[in-house]
Amino acid sequence: MQNQTIIQYFHWYYNEEQNLWNKVAADAAHLKEIGVTAVWLPPAYKASTGGYSVGYDVYDLFDLGEFDQKGSVNTRYGSKAEYITAIDALHEQGISVLADVVFNHKAGGDELERIPVRTVNEENRNEFTSDVFEIDAWTRFTFPGRDGAYSGFIWDQQCFSGVDWAEDLKETAIYSIQNSAGEGFEDVPSTEFGNYDYLMFNDIDFRNQAVVDELKYWGEWVVEQTKVDGFRLDAVKHINPHFIVEWIDHLNQKFNRNFFIVAENWDVVNTAEQEEYIQITAGKTQIFDSLLHHNFFLASKEENNFDMRTIFDNTLLQINPELAVTFVDNHDSQPLQALESYVEFWFRPMAYAIILLRMQGIPCLFFPDLYGGIYDDQKEGEDFHIQLAILPELETMSKIRTHLAYGEQRDYFDHGNCVGWTRAGDEEHPDSGLAVLLSTGEEGWKTMEIGKHFAGKTFIDALGKHEEGIVIDEEGFAEFHCHAKSVSVWVQTT
Ligand code: CA
Description:
27 strands, Immunoglobulin-like, TIM Barrel, eight-stranded parallel β-barrel, 11 helices, Elongation Factor Tu (Ef-tu), domain 3, alpha/beta, 22% helix, binds calcium ion
């Protein structure tokens, strides 16, 4: 079987002339060539800021760039027809497609309602700071531009547990809605701020069965309309986990298959919360390993003071590797974004070697590392011009993952700066097997075992950083090399 590789095919500032759906369709054959098996596409439905939106301020899940709503027919990425054409093009290359799904909230309501609320303490959302009073809030969603197509469901105050804007008062706060579904916020995995159910906009209330049924129906609809193969679930730490399980079970039963699901449960310190989430959801979703990303970030900042023997400490890769989707960065961690923690450029090839060439985890490539990214934005009132450079080693490493990163893994995480591992290869993949050595300090060398079946064979540096080959000795060992602050990937000459 071929190793799986996902790509996040967008970043926060993707804004090129070519619409994204057309770009990915044209790129499908290339993605297959470099070993990509699944493409995660950005939110495809209409958001409250229409054609400008990255997509996370979701307005209408049933408008995939088809109706004139929020100032445009198309989304930022193109039309519904172009989205479906792109998915078909990826399927023709045997590549799966993951749709990005935001279930936590809705934004851009069509009509005001007079609703009973209580304010809560932002630092402790279990604490009410007022008696019940009424405000005007944008909680009614009628989708006039869609006019009942695909679904006649109208969202109203009964569908939400909280809002952050009182139109009549012109005031921002966290307003807990007193509706018939329940008192206060729902139980969610994150206990940050007492209860982190409320994240932003109109928070969806999964205690309302009509809402649950509508979202199950939407899941069926989107699979039938687009033929997507799986989902990336946004912000699950703010969502009732029992709903997530129910929704996944429903779709799997309905279509008699196991959809690939990866959840964003962002956390950079608390391994226990990740473990708890896996327990509650019975391991039904893969999870992005944000803890590993954070270790990469620290290693890239601390340079040779970071002890590389600890790079896997407290990561999902360590506690539950079967569920880990590993990544170096994403659209939230990139420069100027909400969770900014961009791994420094010098360390990125090492981070990618770790996620691509080892046995554990399903890696997810980040768009700018393959295609670059140039953008301007402000942060804390200051202007920035950002240039994210293409990582020249990445395509080569991704191909090596696809063809050669198989078989037994021998680890040499035995030095603070210089670590490595070997893969013994297997019979199914011709010429497979490799050795990786990386150093965050001085030039490195290490004697590593790769297997007696390679005795007498010559290995070369596939990243082209060394000209001389290395010959494996009779016992299956060799001394492998890498330059200072560099990674080398040694593969058999063919
Ligand atoms: Ca929520």
